[in-house]
Design brief:
Blueprint lengths: L1 E5 L21 E5 L15 H13 L4 E5 L2 H4 L8 H16 L3 E5 L4 E2 L2 E2 L17 H18 L5 E5 L15 H18 L5 E3 L5 H4 L7 H6 L4 E3 L8 H5 L4 H4 L1 H12 L7 E6 L11 H13 L4 E7 L29 H15 L9 E5 L14 H11 L5 E4 L6 H7 L3 E5 L2
Parallel strand pairs: 2-3, 2-11, 3-4, 4-7, 7-8, 9-10, 10-11, 12-13, 12-14
Antiparallel strand pairs: 1-14, 5-6
Protein name: Cellulase family glycosylhydrolase
InterPro entries: GH, Glyco_hydro_5
Keywords: Glycosidase, Hydrolase
Length: 429
């Protein structure tokens, strides 16, 4: 439940912007590329023809970009050795994507992928170095990012360079403080930017603990203020969202929208874009029969948010069941099955994107904002099952389109005007 705390007769118009402003012209729709043959182990014996086939299938859905991942141990097997052959593979894939009409975002330090961690041996066993805090380990990662940027920046289809995939998955084996995380991200982002060209993005990503995890060292502030775009990965299994509310629930279908609005609240720049960079329909959390409707609702609801950069689905191809030891959900996340046939969710996603391109949504300012008052130790109130999350969803069900507003900014009239907020409400327990 909610209670009003502030209202005006008419919403303020943000400086420099009209409420009827056209939709973001660069709204993007893509997919995280998982090679059909061999998963990411395909990098051990990269086959351009296999990649070309996968990319043609992706482009055939009307998607405009992919996000790609090489493996850190193959790129940098020694702290002072970056393999030219591995960097060349990555450049070749970017070129193949261009042939298919696809732009590319490259993640640099992998890191963590689909429940597996990939550490170079120079970070392990008796060589162990904390990848977040050891100065030489951090500098090695910075050099890898400089090298990748230098090798790829002249490709006109390069969107940019991301530090790595959900690097906060590595904190269990690499204890780190919030201050150390901030220094790590600042150092690596600066390194990535050294070789990039104007307009290319330098970003980072984190899984949902950064937003919902009490005292997690990766913070919402870091996600929303460092790098050129805020990336969110609103997975329906985080905090048991789908099991808690149901796979076809209102809460599940509006989760990406909520994550986008939550991310906007933590940004210091009201115009900072948000990228829904990973979302998907993992079985059994989302049964296959519900997946097409989930995909359609997720994209449409997210597209109604101002400042959305785009949506990138996870993932392109199912993991082949000949590969062992993945969690069950990892085998069914693709738009295509493991032999390359499009699944019903692929058709639903392609149709929804085609509709949005033919008739774009024009997102309006969210004139009502629900105030979020939490500390690093109580961040979980904003996650599924939390009191704030439930209050936001309650408002949304009533037909409101609530923004998220940090309590510390609730009295800042200039900030409220910049976001188009005319009315604030407080959650009530």
């Amino acid at each position: 439940m909610v209670v009003d705390t502030f209202s005006e007769d008419k919403p303020p118009t943000p400086p420099g912007r009209r409420p009827e402003e056209d939709p973001i012209p660069t709204l993007r729709f893509g997919v995280n590329y998982t090679p059909r043959r061999g998963w990411f182990h395909a990098w051990h014996d990269f086959d351009p023809q296999h990649a070309r086939e996968d990319l043609a299938q992706i482009a055939g859905l009307g998607l405009d970009h992919i996000r790609v991942f090489h493996l850190w141990p193959l790129l940098q097997p020694n702290r002072t050795l970056i393999r030219t052959a591995a960097v060349d593979q990555l450049a070749r894939l970017v070129d193949l994507a261009a042939e298919a009409g696809l732009d590319v975002m490259v993640d640099g330090v992998q890191g963590h992928l689909s429940s597996f961690d990939f550490y170079p041996e120079w970070t392990r066993s008796w060589h162990h170095r904390n990848v977040f805090t050891d100065p030489e380990a951090v500098e090695a990662q910075a050099e890898l990012l400089r090298t990748l940027a230098g090798a790829l920046a002249d490709r006109p289809n390069l969107i940019g360079l991301q530090l790595g995939n959900e690097l906060n998955n590595l904190v269990e084996h690499n204890p780190v403080t919030t201050a150390e995380v901030d220094h790590y991200l600042d150092t690596l982002l600066a390194a990535a930017r050294e070789g990039l060209r104007p307009g290319q993005l330098a970003t980072h990503s984190a899984y949902d603990a950064a937003w919902y995890g009490d005292d997690h060292p990766f913070t919402p502030e870091a996600s929303a203020r460092k790098g050129d775009v805020t990336t969110v990965h609103p997975w329906v299994f985080s905090a048991d969202c789908a099991r808690r509310y149901g796979p076809a629930s209102f809460e599940v279908q509006h989760l990406a929208e909520y994550a986008t609005e939550l991310a906007k609240a933590y940004a210091t720049d009201p115009s900072r874009p948000v990228w829904v960079q990973e979302t998907g329909a993992p079985e059994p959390h989302i049964p296959a029969a519900d997946a097409p409707a989930f995909a359609r609702a997720t994209v449409l609801n997210a597209a109604a948010c101002q400042g959305l950069w785009g949506v990138t689905w996870w993932c392109s191809h199912d993991v082949d069941r000949s590969l062992a030891d993945y969690p069950e959900l990892e085998y069914t996340l693709g738009l295509f099955d493991s032999v390359g046939h499009p699944k019903p969710i692929a058709t639903a996603l392609a149709d929804t994107i085609a509709e949005l391109r033919a008739k774009p949504i024009s997102p309006q300012p969210r004139t009502t904002a629900l105030v979020l008052d939490c500390t690093p130790s109580t961040r979980s109130v904003s996650g599924p099952g939390g009191t704030y999350f439930d209050a936001w969803m309650h408002l949304r069900k009533q037909g409101e389109r609530p923004a998220v507003l940090l309590a510390e900014r609730a009295g800042d009239k200039g900030y409220l005007a910049a976001r188009g907020i005319a009315r604030t409400v407080q959650p009530r327990g």
